[in-house]
Amino acid sequence: MRIMPLLDEKLLFNRKWSWILHVFFWMFVYLDVLLDFEYMAEDWDSFLKSLGVQAGIVYFNLYVLFPKLFLKKKYIIYGLATMVCVFCIMIIDFWMFDPFYDIPKAEILPYYIEHFIYNAFIMGSAIGLKLFKTLLKNRIKLDELRKLKHSAELNYLKNQINPHFLFNAMNSMYVLSQKNSAQLSDSILDLSDLMRYQLHEGQKPFVTIGEEVKFLKSYVKFEDMRRTDLTVNFHENIEDEGLNIAPLLLLAFIENAMKHSKTLDDRPVIIDITISAYKAELFCKVTNPIGDYEAAKNDPNKGIGLKNVNRRLDILYPDKHQLEIEDSGDYFSVSLTIDNT
User: Fold this and answer.
1) SS3 content of the chain, % helix, strand, coil (to 5)
2) What pLDDT shows up at residue 1?
3) Distance CA 67, CA 292 (A)
4) Contact 317, 301 (CB under 8 A)
5) CA 76 → CA 27, 132, 166, 271, distances in Å?
6) Measuring CA to CA, which of 88, 112, 250, 274 is 20 to 30 A from 149?
7) 205-241 burial, b if ≥16 CB within 10 A, otherwise e?
8) Model-level pTM greater than 0.85?
């Protein structure tokens, strides 16, 4: 999200266009003078001289003193130097135009104070705008660095998915080869399709929920080939298949369920997967039996995929997701809700 959508960065930071803002600033400063057509007609040259003096010293402050003193945190020296600049404007103005010749002596001091306040206000306004522009530029750079960091981290997390997925897939194929299963050749073809999706669609920032569900179903089918004790209930209620989601985000939930789903009494393993998309809200829930709770609890690889997903969610959907993990001892359940608005 842009910080100041109403301010075009071209005007703020491009020297080719930023002169427009400078023109508007000085027009605002001298608005009362510019609207005094009688004065402008008589003393146009005086106005230009006064503007030249004031603008020259103001820009000397902004482009010499500001970076050399203020940005180096020499605030007291910069403040004193700015006061000197204001006095310089006044001294040069008085020297050029001698304004005291028709002013009563009793009014000279109030006039001097008023003139000082007026010039200090102009200098302060210019410094304030320069400071605002500097802070805004730093904020934009910080946002760009944060985006680059997040992009690099997301790529790192995505790259972790591929070896993890391939390791599980090779285990499945090994089981089939041990059985001399005729399904091995089919599993190789299915694996190539799954890897193709990861290599192509997985590199995109977002895919449609329809594409992601199709991939997840193919993965479930692939895993189902090696396990005769496995029953997967895949429930989907997709109102809008064009709804966007980060690719491979839900894969870790199903991989985790496939890997750790067991029963103690050799009953069929039932995994429930529910995915729904209504308007801009996406919901996914995966539930699987644990079986040997202590063995699952002490598994050194437990939770790696879930930590990966949790970090991706924090980056991609900050404050727009809710991840709930329930571990009852007999069943393990993960529920994810994403607000895509």
Assistant:
1) 65, 15, 20
2) 42
3) 66
4) no
5) 31, 20, 62, 69
6) 250
7) ebbbbbbbbebbbebbebbebbeeebebeeebebeee
8) no
Residue 5: pLDDT band (50, 70, 90) is: very low
- Name all domains of the chain by residue range, CATH numbers in brackets: 9-143 (no CATH), 164-339 (3.30.565.10)
Q: What is the DSSP string of 8-51?
A: -HHHHH-HHHHHHHHHHHHHHHTHHHHT-HHHHHHSHHHHHHHH
Strands 207-208 and 230-238: unpaired
Interatomic CA distance for residues 122 and 55, integer angstroms: 10
Comparing CA positions, the residue from 144, 314, 325 lying closest to residue 246 is 314
pLDDT by residue (tens digit) across 190-207?
Answer: 777 777 787 778 778 889
- In single-letter form, the type of residue at position 142 comes to L
Side by side, the strands of the sheet bearing 281-289 are 230-238, 269-278, 281-289, 331-339, 321-327
Number of other CB atoms surrounding residue 122 within 10 Å: 20
Q: What's the average model confidence in pLDDT over 290-315? A: 67
Q: Is the per-residue pLDDT at 118 higher than 90?
A: no
Name residue 252's amino acid.
A
